Amino acid sequence: MVNVLNCVCFCGQVDREYAVQKALHSAGFPVPQPLLYCSDTDVIGTDFYIMEHVQGRIFRDLRLPGLSAAERVALYVAAVETLARLHSIDVTKLGLQGYGKGAGYSKRQVSTWTKQYRASAHRSIPAMDELSDWLGKNIPSSDNEVTLVHGDFRIDNLIFHPTEVTALELQFGSNWTTARIQREPGQHLLADSSSGKERILGF
């Protein structure tokens, strides 16, 4: 198979991306097999890694032209199932303990979003103050549970079967550089400024 050279990473954490992809592939999760990581920047000017090429379809146009309504539904269901499978993985079995800050993610995120909101607010919005106070007092008891989160999960980061509406692989590209071990708090609840179109672009 043709191998894909991956070095487009603006986060400077290609090694981090490689480690996560390798751990997931070893655990049987559908990601392209990572083949080689090179930290020698003299080779091409930056560190990089090589992974296997996966034959399939990537839907860049999120309107999904050419697919029937039923196929579009099936495609999004496949995407959600892939995401659920990712979140069901036992992080301790991946050997990625200590990869992120882990427990207490919801508390940290609510605190950060609240500080950012208050620092940028031009006037007091009682509803927002009430919401941030409520969130701070209602951190879920499961906040100490951790899972691996992709960081940029969306349809065009999935590789689908060439002819069937089936997800084959979860792409990496430069996307797993933002992956982290955390508990997802539904941070959009605190400040959802996305338009309807933007919301369908990712999960």
TrEMBL record:
Transmembrane segments: none annotated. SUPFAM superfamilies: Protein kinase-like (PK-like). It holds the Pfam family APH. Residues 13-168 form the Aminoglycoside phosphotransferase domain. It comes from the Eukaryota. PANTHER family: AMINOGLYCOSIDE PHOSPHOTRANSFERASE DOMAIN-CONTAINING PROTEIN, HYDROLASE, PUTATIVE (AFU_ORTHOLOGUE AFUA_1G12880)-RELATED. This is Aminoglycoside phosphotransferase domain-containing protein. It comes from Astyanax mexicanus (Blind cave fish).
